[in-house]
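Protocol step 4 of 6: structure prediction from sequence.
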Amino acid sequence: AAVALGTGGGTVKLWADTFGGDLYSTLTKYSGSLLLQKKYKDVESSLKIEEVDGLELVRKFSEDMENMLRRKVEAVQNLVEAAEEADLNHEFNESLVFDYYNSVLINERDEKGNFVELGAEFLLESNAHFSNLPVNTSISSVQLPTNVYNKDPDILNGVYMSEALNAVFVENFQRDPTLTWQYFGSATGFFRIYPGKGMEYIQAATSPKDIVILVDVSGSMKGLRMTIAKHTITTILDTLGENDFVNIIAYNDYVHYIEPCFKGILVQADRDNREHFKLLVEELMVKGVGVVDQALREAFQILKQFQEAKQGSLCNQAVMLISDGAVEDYEPVFEKYNWPDCKVRVFTYLIGREVSFADRMKWIACNNKGYYTQISTLADTQENVMEYLHVLSRPMVINHDHDIIWTEAYMDSKLWTGPGSRKLGLPHSLCLSFQRSHGILLGVVGSDVALRELMKLAPRYKLGVHGYAFLNTNNGYILSHPDLRPLYREGKKLKPKPNYNSVDLSEVEWEDQAESLRTAMINRETGTLSMDVKVPMDKGKRVLFLTNDYFFTDISDTPFSLGVVLSRGHGEYILLGNTSVEEGLHDLLHPDLALASDWIYCITDIDPDHRKLSQLEAVIRFLTREDPDLECDEELVREVLFDAVVTAPMEAYWTALALNISEESEQVVDMAFLGTRAGLLRSSLFVGSEKVSDRKFLTPEDEASVFTLDSFPLWYRQASEHPAGSFVFNLRWAEGPGNPRPCAPGAGPASAVGVQMKLEFLQRKFWAATRQCSTVDGPCTQSCEDSDLDCFVIDNNGFILISKRSHETGRFLGEVDGAVMTQLLSMGVFSQVTMYDYQAMCKPSSHHHSAAQPLVSPISAFLTATRWLLQELVLFLLEWSVWGSWYDRGAEAHKQKKQDQLQPCDTEYPVFVYQPAIREANGIIECGPCQKVFVVQQIPNSNLLLLVTDPTCDCSIFPPVLQEATEILTLTVISAHNASVKCDRMRSQKPRRRPDSCHAFHPEVRVEAGRGWAGSSPPNPLCLGLCPHTWMPVNTPVPVLFRGNICVYAL
């Protein structure tokens, strides 16, 4: 066999040519590609080619987005004005009796069939605009935390006062039907929803801040006190956002940073860093004696250095002191670093039941514009920690400022838990705080903005096959990008990644090594740059090499920037055809035609009468003038009309072909299909629908095969990178990996056409072709069916389509034959391209820190509450030294479970690409005692190769060549260099743009005699037991009531 292969290159070429010719003949016949090419050729003279002005395009998109977001802001401002007016006109009534719609109780009946109190009949209807949830768009409802009495006078007065917002909610929605959820979160503890949802309070209640957390880890903090202290730190971290900066210092006999890599700096409080800190906090151990003054000096020095270097938030600064007591007041430290201006607030948290040191802890807080509280149980932690927000919000309240706060993007749990989970919307909350005139924060109003709706303003058809639009924030984080992957699969479940809303632009556009694009967009610049990029496709198995032109600008009055990408060769020009409405309308009515359901040909989601219309039905109504109220994209509709006319003959061609196929004849092709740049899709079956092998293909269930808001179909994108008239084969797995079906699209000037065929037919064609031989070689002495030959058909990325062994189908050649793949790489037949994934999920090593934070659902909230009750029981037992060892074992089991979870990581992986300039090659591989001979030959008019090898020589000394991802800088093998590189990366502060507003101080809250007293004269440090309420935004679907002691200022 080795001799035959060495001299039989002509035979292998004959096999490849014969197989390629048979395939081309079959595919052109069933796809109708030659007819389609001719139809486009016929209209070529009437086509108008326009160059796309990328800068003009991005400016237009930005202006449209700005107008849309302005409408959202105006709606929220309407709510602010109405809420403040309602509060001014309301007189508190201690004995007020008032019924309202409690979200938990509505439509509930007692055992007699009567509606329960506060649970009157409330009409609910499923509404597609609100994720198909049952809602009432004529009125809002009220949510209360379970530990709040729903007829408390404060609650009743607040709910009664806020009834005035119902009319404004409805009026806002009628004025702008693209609005989604609208909120009113009251500082008294209730939450009004139109038509219903949770919200975030913290980021709207305060300005950006630099926080240094000091935690006492001396021996006196052992046991329950340390547990409470850890929970206190975690709660503080949960109040921080990506515009805040933080560090944590533990102290006993000496001062040490819990993350040594962060020594002497503040780091951005993004989700990654917050979760990293949480894990480190859990590892804190107690010993020694607490030396507070050293820790305070270190904290003040960091804050001063960052302020002077113009780093960090450049707004509020605070020190959080968490301890079981202070033996002195540390006045010299405050005199040196903080008095008389008190630019750094100090908040003190006394841990435990002892009150011996309470006076000094109060003195420290009240003399540094902070506040003091005592936390004696875990249940007290959240409610007491949150009170510091009221202190930080006072300057904003007194100024009567209504800052627009755009929160971090978050994922609507309704959108990722249902069957349409892959159609993600990332709503963005717009929040405004409002207040009474006497300086008390009244609450927060807000509205969601679905990023999906925002990105519809950058129509896909204007960007070409590989083009796209993307949004990022002032911190460089991605809001929307086609390569943003917020979900990962764990078992059979899709889950949100812990860091899904803090993926940096540089982690997606990673080819921009100098971060020029990121820096320009952060700085609100308008401009353009070009990059050669490698774009992953087909779940990382394939790669496209493109030259992209980036166009970018800011969106005025928001912290966001918009980018538009046009790929050269595809996005630089747009083809405009000309056809009559009558002719185009006729062809649009063909039953084989569909339009991209995600694209906006006509606006159908505003008018309730239009919401049930498909895009095709809406276009037809628009063209026939049946509905004059329909608004449509006239340019896109013209393109669709032209494409419908040009591709119309394909329906008749496919129909005639199907009629000529007898049932007894060999079933070759399941279906033919085509797609155009305008999102038009035609398809025709050659078998009964029950016999189609892959029923998900070209349906919304298979996003990769249809036009979506983010991208063109995979088969369209692949075909566009190959010569017009050639076919690209891609093996698809239908209904499980045991049923592969090849898909073969071919490209045209403005469309792609293809067929889906049975693999069995492809195999039969191949084995028949390899029985051929030329007269020059004499009688046919060899074929691929011989036992002394191994034959493979592989694609241009090295994946096997045909092999003698069926279990090898679909696998990468390097896994099956590492020796041959190694040789093909060394000869340059294939090249290896290194790709990077900065959104990967990996199993953690024992040293790797990260954690997942699930989204909230009612079930998870119930489970959380259950876990809390159990935890309280355990802590009670701990406090009385009962069953301590049992708790320790449970904690260890929980820790082990956490370590088994997938965690965010950075990976690199290889992709292998055939070099088409090498049409044929052969070689000999030395495998110890024997030699392995192989021949590789290009199969014409396709992306396929024929590989023939000698199976008799054992080359197992060569390891397999794998397409596996490896973690970058994994800590499983720790070296000084790796640790240094990892630390440098963690410490690096990427450029960011700070929020435009800051409310750190107000002259009415002034300092007297260097003591930080608020008011006209320094009063005694009187701390009253007040009951303010605020909202807890993290991991809870309902508001949480907070009660605690605060140090009161006289304003």
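Step 5 (inspection) to follow. The first helix runs from residue 2 to 7.
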